[in-house]
Specification:
The protein is 5% helix and 40% strand. It is mostly beta strands and 615 residues long.
Length: 615
Amino acid sequence: MLPRDTRKANSYHSGIPLTRGVSARARAILTGALFATVAGCAPQQEQSFVPCVDATFPQGNTPPSGRDPSTIPPAIKFPADGTAVLGAAKATIFDSRTMANQIDRREFTGPQQRPGALIPEHKRPPIAEGASNDLVYSMQGTAPRNDVDPAFPAIGATVWTPPDPCLAVGPSHILATVNMKVAWYGKNGAVQFENFLSSIGNPGFFEEVGCGSYTFDPKCFYDERAGRFVVLALEYYSATTESWITFAVSDDSDPNGIWFKYRTPALIELAPGCRYFVDYPGFGYDGDAWYVTNNLFRLSGPSTCAGFGGTLVRVFEKSGAMSGGTAVWRDVLDAGASWQVGSSRSGTDAARLVRINNTTSLTIARVDNPLTAPTLVTANCTVPSMYTFASAPTPTILLSIVDRRIFNAVVRGGRVFAANHSALVSGGPAGAAWYEIDVSGATPTLVQSGRIAAAAGEYTFFPSVAVNDGGSVALVYGRSSATLNPTLEVAGRLPCDPSGVLGASTVIGASTTIPPATTSLRWGDYFAATVDPADGRTFWVIGEIQNAAGWTTEIASLRIGRAGDISGDGKVDSEDLALLLAGWGLPGAGDLDGSGVVEGGDLSWFLSDWGPCGP
């Protein structure tokens, strides 16, 4: 049957707790540095603490980490021959069950701050113009493919915006991260843990490993090959010139309990005095390793130092980190920008890195010898043209939706699936798009590409793509226009659908309002989609919507199928026809088009689905 198209928005939101484990005087100093009181915010008791962030906090300055400067490791320098740099870190062991307050959802109200405003000005190089080609995106169709379960509200507004939601799904649990929180749930949506990543938690998730009061750009995944959840966040502190890649690994497939946490230095010196911090990570895995990609931007040094330093690719060995031993990693550099890691859930596929090369091609990288001497082997793949766009409209304001970069990628069966948004003509509306690329040979080739359909003036953005064990594809994304508050939607396709064509969209979350002009108007910066390892078929997605309390995130599960498969046996055949005709003129399972009764429109849908499909 057709899925229901609307979900209610989140009805609660989160807050910033007071810092634990410091003196009253130190707490007052730190809290004052982080959250300056503004008009309308009165002191309150800790159990109902409502902090207010000073929106004029100086750009390029962040709260200090609290670490003794004498213990901060020196900047990482690379040898002249470009070979990998080796590093290692010891674990801090943490048991989530010992926390006195495992679910911290204290309320936050007031203006929000964009984390990117607290780090030095940073811009990646413009995307180069590519050679023109005749390739076109396949446009979305109208066939019903989505069977969507009701969404549940996940982490709500924190002091930071945008949320940057990410998602990891294990056999029995769902884990989500945002700026700057982590939470996990049962698959019924019941929250089991929620806390802040930084030291403003009580304690924060990464506080005991040495994390200070500023983390950003979190990512997470469930490594199906290892049976572990892995959570990552970046840290930056200008006062002490610090940059860190901090991550944690669960000790099994249940996030409740033991975690092994690691804080790895990431201040990079590319030339004498030219030091760079890491930003906007990609994060993924395969059978060999965990991979982190990071843009490098100048933190300190003379004006002769380039503002953009390329990409740091950090490859972590799994073995030591999964046992609470020493986490060993190797760093390599690449001149490109905004690489994303395509994870390989199973089989012999290795992970791939994906980025935009120019306006008409993507670059795909394979990491050879990841555990000994990692090197990137790259090749380009021609795709349809990707043009620039303006900010996304809403009924009252414009939303910043970043640029044309790749937002996520996955690998399955010798194919890379990736997603981004761009315009069909220069300055036109942004549209969510996806790509399937054959990487089984020396030269990657485009298999198919598709785009979400949109009415005039509508923008679709921040797509994330996933592919399940049967080859079905799901895409989660947002949509807005001058008459539409942002929505969260999904679309899917079966392997037998026409090339590049996704089925009809389903709305899983709808904003009741838009961000006020007093806060950052940045949306995103990414959504996430993944596959449930319990069956290899069910998809889970997360994304952002807005309600009166601020931004919030919604999580939903779905399956991709055909409306005509009334019996649920994977085929559309005479058995299904008999069920449809038996319900003619009545409501029921044969009401494929959602009109309320079984009639001629349903028979048309049914006949279009006739026959077998997919493996």
